[in-house]
């Protein structure tokens, strides 16, 4: 009888462990930000600059420049679309068989977390804009659960998108290595942008812990005046 009870206890513990693992896999873990205030990032080295958001010192920091792209609805998307918004951005392509599906899945977690919050937007740039036309982006959006006017999948001129990735968002990690426009841009990084178009964080878009941290950091950023 004692042996039976021990086996039953082990089975219960084993099932609880599996359930706990599945919950961690299927749900975003609530996590606090590492800091009370997020740093600013001014160059590709991503060296943090700890500056109060009310300080005049932020005026000279790097900001995302003006841009003009087209989203999955055929609408023109510019920097003004993100006026007074916090947004997360990345670079992908719809036919990507490697890292992009997981990046899209993790971006969807962010979308779900803030789907009712109009202050938070998402922006994904196609790095194969010559292939990812508006109809293709629309189909991709429909199959991936992308919410209209919440998550913009954009296409446009290749040069414009690549310049944004390399010189505006600094998404590639080849610091100091200059690439030509002909070299493919492929990165798993997500970048967090504040309401004034400053870079406030960079995260591995394939890593669930990093995504949890990003969600927490968005909440911290929302508290800024």
TrEMBL record:
Family the UniProt entry places it in: Belongs to the SCO1/2 family.
UniProt cross-references to Gene3D superfamilies, sorted A to Z: Glutaredoxin
Protein's recorded name: SCO family protein
Domain of life: Bacteria
Annotated InterPro entries: SCO1/SenC, Thioredoxin-like_sf
CDD domains in the cross-refs: SCO (cd02968)
Pfam families recorded: SCO1-SenC
Organism: Flagellimonas algicola
